[in-house]
Amino acid sequence: MGVAQNFKAQTMNTPKIKTHRMIDEFKNQNHFFILSKGYNAGKPLLNPCPNCFVVITSNLEEKEYFYWLCYGLWVGGFFRQVLTGSVIPFLRISELHQVINATRSKVALRKEALMNSLEILNKLSAHHDNLVKQIQLIKQAKKAIMYKILR
Predict the structure, then answer these.
(1) What CA–CA distance (Å, rounded) separates 104 from 66?
(2) Can you name the CATH fold of 9-109?
(3) Which long-range contacts (CB under 8 A, 24 or more apart) does 126-134 make?
């Protein structure tokens, strides 16, 4: 996800948030998913899974904004404060809306800091993906070496 240059936090529409059904398909790229159950509830995802919400935005710029906003809220533990349930904690859509809207209004006042943070998060995410690929290649090399020795 690249940071949009013409970012306008004050003109952002409120995203539509619905419970995702695995049979639903989305034609455009203006959506992402949020885990709704477990201790990782609130974690934004690019691919659907069972027990998640879908966040539908008007454009890619809004998708990126809300994805990283939710990511920051998840990393910061803000969703844990509103989890419900004793055995399997879960996040309600209404509480998800409340947390996002409250944070959105606070962040709108610090647009420049938000843009810098989004840029850094994008770079760190790309670096993380690169490291994951490198680790997978190292594991494959280890298997190949052991296979060669043991066959």
Answers:
(1) 9
(2) Adenine-n6-DNA-methyltransferase TaqI; Chain A, domain 2 (3.90.220)
(3) none
The phi and psi torsions of 54 (rounded to 5 degrees) equal -115, 135
Sign of the dihedral defined by the CA atoms of residues 105, 106, 110, 116, in that order: negative
Residues 80, 81, 86, 88: what is their CA dihedral angle, to the nearest 10 degrees? Answer: -20
Q: Are strands 52-56 and 31-35 parallel, antiparallel or unpaired?
A: antiparallel
Q: What pLDDT sits at residue 108? A: 80
Amino acid 149 reads I
Predicted pLDDT of residue 92? 93
* Residues whose CB falls within 8 Å of the CB of residue 125, separated by 6 or more in sequence, listed in order: 1
| 16 closest CA partner among 55, 47, 51 | 55
Considering the chain, what percentage of its residues have pLDDT values greater than 90? Answer: 42
